[in-house]
Amino acid sequence: MTLTPEQLAQIEEERAAQRPTRRAVSEGMEAHLYTAYPVLDHGFIRVIDYMGDDAAICQAARVSYGRGTKSVQNDEGLIRYLMRHWHSTPFEMCEIKLHVKLPVFVARQWIRHRTANVNEYSARYSILDREFYVPEPDALAAQSSTNNQGRGAVLQGEEAARVLDILKRDANRAYDHYEEMLGTDGQQGLARELARMNLPASIYTQWYWKTDLHNLLHFLRLRADSHAQMEIRVYAEAIAKCVKDWVPAAYAAFEDYRMGGATLSAGALGCLRRMLDGETVTQETSGMSKGEWREFEAILARR
Amino acid sequence: MTLTPEQLAQIEEERAAQRPTRRAVSEGMEAHLYTAYPVLDHGFIRVIDYMGDDAAICQAARVSYGRGTKSVQNDEGLIRYLMRHWHSTPFEMCEIKLHVKLPVFVARQWIRHRTANVNEYSARYSILDREFYVPEPDALAAQSSTNNQGRGAVLQGEEAARVLDILKRDANRAYDHYEEMLGTDGQQGLARELARMNLPASIYTQWYWKTDLHNLLHFLRLRADSHAQMEIRVYAEAIAKCVKDWVPAAYAAFEDYRMGGATLSAGALGCLRRMLDGETVTQETSGMSKGEWREFEAILARR
Amino acid sequence: MTLTPEQLAQIEEERAAQRPTRRAVSEGMEAHLYTAYPVLDHGFIRVIDYMGDDAAICQAARVSYGRGTKSVQNDEGLIRYLMRHWHSTPFEMCEIKLHVKLPVFVARQWIRHRTANVNEYSARYSILDREFYVPEPDALAAQSSTNNQGRGAVLQGEEAARVLDILKRDANRAYDHYEEMLGTDGQQGLARELARMNLPASIYTQWYWKTDLHNLLHFLRLRADSHAQMEIRVYAEAIAKCVKDWVPAAYAAFEDYRMGGATLSAGALGCLRRMLDGETVTQETSGMSKGEWREFEAILARR
Amino acid sequence: MTLTPEQLAQIEEERAAQRPTRRAVSEGMEAHLYTAYPVLDHGFIRVIDYMGDDAAICQAARVSYGRGTKSVQNDEGLIRYLMRHWHSTPFEMCEIKLHVKLPVFVARQWIRHRTANVNEYSARYSILDREFYVPEPDALAAQSSTNNQGRGAVLQGEEAARVLDILKRDANRAYDHYEEMLGTDGQQGLARELARMNLPASIYTQWYWKTDLHNLLHFLRLRADSHAQMEIRVYAEAIAKCVKDWVPAAYAAFEDYRMGGATLSAGALGCLRRMLDGETVTQETSGMSKGEWREFEAILARR
């Protein structure tokens, strides 16, 4: 992570200042505020602001269900009920704003989550810094031979060295030429909005990203999943740690019902019933395709 | 406004409690928090939570424009620039959560603003209260004879009395029957989700409504406008007062560029140039329809 | 369903006219176009327009996955794969536009699905017709004694008769007064935007509603579910019949993975593994609450 | 534009096939369907599907306003009225689906329009082609000295040649290394999801992009504007040509009220009134900042 001494000083200053508020306060989240948590080689996430807490979720649910929610004794039980029955609107009543520094190829995946507010650093207005993602050796994975979007074994030795060399040299050469095209202060160089096109997808950008808790959990479910690309998963994991301290009951329910849960098809449920009745079901007798059967077995084997 | 003593006591309690936070705090908004401002005969709006302030808008804009925003000296100037050029994303970085009590026919207009989070009191789960909107005598307007969706003169004397009598009697009779159909505690009456269909659109509902500042200002532009139905306009006006204290610079820019501004067509701009050149332009020579010309004249005459 | 002879003639005319197009055509959907399918006593749904078909879903998926999708041999297999892995964007590439006539209390539930385009009949501009939903005798359910939002046994005999009588009389009286307040043509009556507030939630409104297939299937999952209120479920079921003919492969996958499927929590999956290993698991030893356990048993018992 | 003979043959085939439909047909749009219109050096836009036409906009508006719209005699007048009063929902009743090939840095701007459905070619699954945007000599603009996001004079002679040389060489070298890292068929090279990070923002991607007419017009207003970056503006202009033939009345209203129109602030309207009264207003006496005054003068001078 590359934060200038000025930036670090500003973060310290922001963290030191406290003011009274009448709003809901999450002590767990207050402890994280403004701190930049490193992700990848130059990236970070930091929480800039938040709205609401576990109690705010329940408060909103109780407006909806009125006297009807009296039966659920406590907040934790109510939150589990809401999560189990996909009642998403109470979770939308919490909001988070993050400052994220991330490589452009990660940003391109991330931005596909449309229900969010974004202010990204503009390379039309301003000049990007010389910072590129270069994977750690243990992240230099080969293409998976079985999964079109997956990774296989880690590259070793000379092959790994060659790849790292290419990534570094090409990125630096591209940046040298970017600067050269922009010209020095005295000159009138190429427009920034054009010069930027020479820069690779490994370059870092940054943005403010704001979303509600329901959409954030959906983001985490997809991006903290083991099938997500590692370079976005580490961001999701860093965010998840903050969320856990922000809304502990909601996060626990999320872990049980979403991250650790699984959706089974009508066909899979049918097989399950036969298996519980003592029948031995195989892929051939399951009615499922090979792919589905493999996934079904993985769910049952999961620990 | 009908708040029970318990509710009023709870509001006072919420207002009294203050806790330290590291987040951005808007002093102007803190003063409004939780207070229920009466609207219509039984309704209210109250701010439950907020995120951000004027500085947060600028902070987000400066992430986007990076070093490029150094030229704008101060926050107020930057906010005016953003508003003038329809740069909406920095305004999306502020968020507000309101508790609103409102008649169902107002709620039906309001909900058409889709970019918001809502938890509404559910008449499937719970029993609605006996509270109906009955207009003040000076709001009992006749149908406009020129505008299909407008109001004309205020009804007077016997005609007004008759209308008020109908509204009150029908609402109360409908509610009596609602209660009767639901049955008393001992009995198994009609399902709530069915019995509610007997209630008129003047009955009050309530919800938590959360949206970002950009979408809130869009809501205010449409609903605080003189063409909006009075019964929703008074809600927009009550909210606007809170917004003015929350983000004073953003609200001032909004008043200048949106509420007090006007959009002119290419044709209207052409007429304007001719008029500035000393030509007398009439509807006949304007190229505009009668309706457009009338609106154009109104914009120029506005004070 | 109350369509005037003029409306029926217009529908016949629309159905008779055919024109050549280069666009994707779904034969199954063409057969449904414009036909009004009755729902409840005065309502209907009819498909006004559509975009795309099963092949369009695959076409979009193949743009995303490029050469990577060659491995999936056929469209049906690809669509099942997309549905199973929650790849929602290809389903968003199909669009449908419906004309729906429905009671206001149903419309209020329906509109909570925000990702859709809506043009509703405006009671500010125009006068509503005298049409109210009055349940069939077998739909006159009592409040459930176990479920706050559910229905119990059907009301019988005098109790049923009394409820029907109330609903009809109150609705008609409210409408009589609505007309009276609006005044006759010669008079200047109460503004429409005010008079409408006297009308009950059982009155019919209508709208054009347009959404994409992904969001439509989400709507159907929630509203064609057995826990949905019957009065909206019948609309969802009528729409589902059209969708089945429009995109047969997508609809079949939806039935298997969504309507007939179930999501199990990490805790439930753990119990399942123990049961498959031969252990007898009870609610007490399951780690689940009573409510969760009841739902878990229901999933396993489902046929 | 680089379409393979196979792709061109497929487009011809798609264009040749016509089938009868009962849906609304726009003859103007049918003529454009599937044809790939070249944009920049390797890009294109082509319309894949559409829903609705000018009449469909009016049909939806008439559902809303019921008998109230009878006063507007014809469709064109109604569409102008809707556009003038920002009644956006009837325009949402039309939908378009485009296939677009575009450089990544253009795609990154484009995707910020969130209300759209997208399926993009995935460089995790598949291998990108060796196609990069290299500007035409007359597009090689210098950075503007007055506008942080603008362009100044066109680079000339050696400077231009040097820039073009850098862009081409760096892009090709990056692609050579991309291929090298991916490995040949026999080998297990670097995972595609990693190798892609070496590619510059000038590389072409492609996507299916679907949106409704209201959001499309908003996109065109921002991206066909003279302040938009040229490389996205040419896409907006190519799309605009198709839209003009698809919904001629809506497009004409859009040109008059949006593209050719202007929004004036309350302050600017006040100045205008003083000017029409014969007063000479200068920036100093206007109450506007220098920037605002410059923009105000530009609006009045526009021809």
TrEMBL record, chains A, B, C, D:
<dbReference type="GO" id="GO:0006235">
    <property type="term" value="P:dTTP biosynthetic process"/>
</dbReference>
<dbReference type="InterPro" id="IPR003669">
    <property type="entry name" value="Thymidylate_synthase_ThyX"/>
</dbReference>
<protein>
    <recommendedName>
        <fullName>Flavin-dependent thymidylate synthase</fullName>
        <ecNumber>2.1.1.148</ecNumber>
    </recommendedName>
</protein>
<dbReference type="GO" id="GO:0070402">
    <property type="term" value="F:NADPH binding"/>
</dbReference>
<dbReference type="GO" id="GO:0006231">
    <property type="term" value="P:dTMP biosynthetic process"/>
</dbReference>
<keyword id="KW-0808">Transferase</keyword>
<dbReference type="InterPro" id="IPR036098">
    <property type="entry name" value="Thymidylate_synthase_ThyX_sf"/>
</dbReference>
<keyword id="KW-0285">Flavoprotein</keyword>
<feature type="binding site">
    <location>
        <begin position="109"/>
        <end position="112"/>
    </location>
    <ligand>
        <name>dUMP</name>
    </ligand>
</feature>
<dbReference type="GO" id="GO:0050660">
    <property type="term" value="F:flavin adenine dinucleotide binding"/>
</dbReference>
<feature type="active site" description="Involved in ionization of N3 of dUMP, leading to its activation">
    <location>
        <position position="223"/>
    </location>
</feature>
<comment type="similarity">
    <text>Belongs to the thymidylate synthase ThyX family.</text>
</comment>
<dbReference type="GO" id="GO:0032259">
    <property type="term" value="P:methylation"/>
</dbReference>
<feature type="binding site">
    <location>
        <position position="223"/>
    </location>
    <ligand>
        <name>dUMP</name>
    </ligand>
</feature>
<keyword id="KW-0545">Nucleotide biosynthesis</keyword>
<feature type="binding site" description="in other chain">
    <location>
        <position position="196"/>
    </location>
    <ligand>
        <name>dUMP</name>
    </ligand>
</feature>
<dbReference type="Pfam" id="PF02511">
    <property type="entry name" value="Thy1"/>
</dbReference>
<feature type="binding site">
    <location>
        <position position="89"/>
    </location>
    <ligand>
        <name>FAD</name>
    </ligand>
</feature>
<keyword id="KW-0521">NADP</keyword>
<dbReference type="GO" id="GO:0004799">
    <property type="term" value="F:thymidylate synthase activity"/>
</dbReference>
<dbReference type="GO" id="GO:0050797">
    <property type="term" value="F:thymidylate synthase (FAD) activity"/>
</dbReference>
<feature type="binding site">
    <location>
        <position position="120"/>
    </location>
    <ligand>
        <name>FAD</name>
    </ligand>
</feature>
<feature type="binding site">
    <location>
        <begin position="112"/>
        <end position="114"/>
    </location>
    <ligand>
        <name>FAD</name>
    </ligand>
</feature>
<feature type="binding site">
    <location>
        <begin position="212"/>
        <end position="214"/>
    </location>
    <ligand>
        <name>FAD</name>
    </ligand>
</feature>
<feature type="binding site">
    <location>
        <position position="218"/>
    </location>
    <ligand>
        <name>FAD</name>
    </ligand>
</feature>
<comment type="subunit">
    <text>Homotetramer.</text>
</comment>
<feature type="binding site" description="in other chain">
    <location>
        <begin position="120"/>
        <end position="124"/>
    </location>
    <ligand>
        <name>dUMP</name>
    </ligand>
</feature>
<comment type="pathway">
    <text>Pyrimidine metabolism; dTTP biosynthesis.</text>
</comment>
<keyword id="KW-0274">FAD</keyword>
<keyword id="KW-0489">Methyltransferase</keyword>
<comment type="function">
    <text>Catalyzes the reductive methylation of 2'-deoxyuridine-5'-monophosphate (dUMP) to 2'-deoxythymidine-5'-monophosphate (dTMP) while utilizing 5,10-methylenetetrahydrofolate (mTHF) as the methyl donor, and NADPH and FADH(2) as the reductant.</text>
</comment>
